[in-house]
Amino acid sequence: MASQTVLGLSASDHAKKIARYYQAFCLSERREFATAREIVDHLLDERLSSQLRSRCLLIKGFTYFCAGQIDESLPFYLEAARAARNSDIAALLRAARHIAVIKSIHGDHYQASADLEALIPLACQIARNDPQAYSATLNSYAVELGEIGQVEQALNVVLRIAPFSIIHPEFNETIAELREKLPTRKHSVVVIHIPSEPATASQTAANRTTKRARLSTFIIREAERRFTSFRAPPLQRRRPIPSNLALLNPARQPAKPRAP
Does 247 reside within a domain? Predict the structure, then answer.
């Protein structure tokens, strides 16, 4: 392992800390959570840069999350987001996405979708350098849109990252689940109104249904248009963290549920 090689050299203290972090990262990817957590615990007791600290906290949160200890992982993701706020956009994005996923696990799909939507500009900003974080964020966003009934918009989002499904097969699972949620297409009904006779109750109900369907289609298309027209800012121009991230502002009032 490369980290073991660096640790055996007469490298700087900072380089050895990075090597130990990389060692813990590899162990967590191999699901050796206890050993990985032990390494990052020792690292977190030392003096670290905010970037390295946020990465270590991400590993610790990940070990609890993957072990099914969802609530235990939340404090570490919150702390990682605070540490990374001004130093590591990729770590901030990963921490914020996991916090939104935890909200979803607890059933708060509306707030989770709102938080993930606020992360889209951040994800697009680092898409070239970290396509994994970008695609994972969009996949989570699509899942939450599907949970609140915005299935067509969710498909529009997840199909953008379909090429990444070669290395992330879970994206194909998201696409399949969303397509199953699509409503069955119905044939159009043409209602002919005869002025000499009053409209029947069934005709009035059919007209109301058609108007609601047209309004719903308009809302979805407008949402898709706004999402499609979004352009990521240049990498050299970093925009400030969106102010509507509830996870970084505990005093923020919870978002009101949006109509499906």
Answer: no
In tens digits, the chain (260 residues) has pLDDT values of 555 554 555 668 888 899 999 999 999 999 999 999 999 999 999 999 999 999 999 999 999 999 999 999 999 999 999 999 988 999 999 999 999 999 999 999 999 999 999 999 999 999 889 999 999 999 999 999 999 999 999 999 999 888 888 888 888 899 999 999 888 765 556 655 555 555 566 666 556 545 544 544 444 444 444 443 434 334 444 444 333 344 444 454 455 555 44
Number of domains comprising the chain: 2
| Listed residue (105, 92, 90, 184) closest to 143, CA to CA | 105
Is 14 domain-assigned?
yes
Global pTM reads 0.68
- Tell whether 62 and 129 lie within a shared domain: no
